[in-house]
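Listing S7. Sequence submitted for prediction.
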Amino acid sequence: MSTYLTTLKTEQTGKWGHTLLADLVYQDDELGQITVPVGFQTDFASIWVLHNAVLIVLYALVAGYGNYAATAHDWPYTNGQVSRRQADDLLYRALRAEGVAKWRAALFWIGVRVGGAKRYKPA
């Protein structure tokens, strides 16, 4: 079962931004160990494209959940070490490992599949 091997430690560095104060290590059942390095900047699960009414509703249902998972997901999204689909699937598993309900994890997954393409940076 996927699990976190370390605790998420961050410092807020702006309205949306957070900087990791220690490595976040997540052991994923499919992709193996994901280490998000100290100093990495994340915005957790913020949605930048809120002009879409569907995304606004999704965001309202998921806001405040999944900071660990969002950070583990942001890392491969910014460095392209896996495909976008693999990173989005990792998000679902990471949410479940964090204890987020299946239905809420599915909403997160739908949200990144619908609105995440512009944020993904392939290698």
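Caption to Listing S7: primary sequence and predicted structure tokens for the chain studied. The longest strand covers residues 24-28. The mean pLDDT is 86.
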